[in-house]
Amino acid sequence: MGLRRAIQKLLLKYGSQETVIRTLRGMGVRVGERCRIYTVNFGSEPWLIRIGDHVCISNDVTFVNHGLNWVFQDKYESLTGFGAIDIKDNCQIGVRATILPGVTIGPNSVVGACSVVTKDVPPNSVAAGNPARVVCTIEEYEQRCVARHIDIPNDPEAARKVLEEHFWGGGA
Predict the structure, then answer these.
(1) Residue 117 in contact with residue 97, Cβ under 8 Å?
(2) Rounded to whole angstroms, how far apart are CA atoms 157 and 34?
């Protein structure tokens, strides 16, 4: 890995969100407004990635923009296969998801943790698994989120007490 790439990875891993977005744009990633990005794995063709507005990319998400052609290199001198990745507005990509070449994730969608996205995710849906498939609509997911909501205070110590009481019943 070259020095420039090493510096980019450090900025992506330890920089503020402003620094992360600026670094990604410098690498060629098209990033919209109001995004939160917590991964460093943008592959060797980051300019083939487009991220819309109000998108959250969780930790350890991997973007893959090229296919696996190595086994054919002796037969074809320069066989290549690339694909763009397009994440539309208002999406969330879960921890350790992998997004493969040629995939579009529709607006208002969620990709579950550890999912492998091999084909497009339709708008207003939640996809999960390996390979990822639609598991519910965004409306159904919203209802589940609201049903399991726990109202916690902003103070970290008070929040801890509320959560411990909720999950452990006050007993340690």
Answers:
(1) yes
(2) 28
Q: How far apart are CA 37 and CA 17, in angstroms?
A: 7
How does pLDDT run across 23-49, given as a tens digit for each residue? 999 999 999 999 999 999 998 899 999
Report how far apart the first and last C-alpha atoms of the chain are (Å, whole number).
Answer: 47
Backbone phi and psi for residue 98, each to the nearest 5 degrees, phi listed first: -120, 125
The answer to whether 98 and 64 are in contact (CB under 8 A) is yes
Name which residue leads in pLDDT, 124 or 3: 124
Distance of CA 125 to the CA centre of its chain: 15
**Kind of pairing between the strands at 30-31 and 104-105:** unpaired
Tokens linked to 151: 């109202």
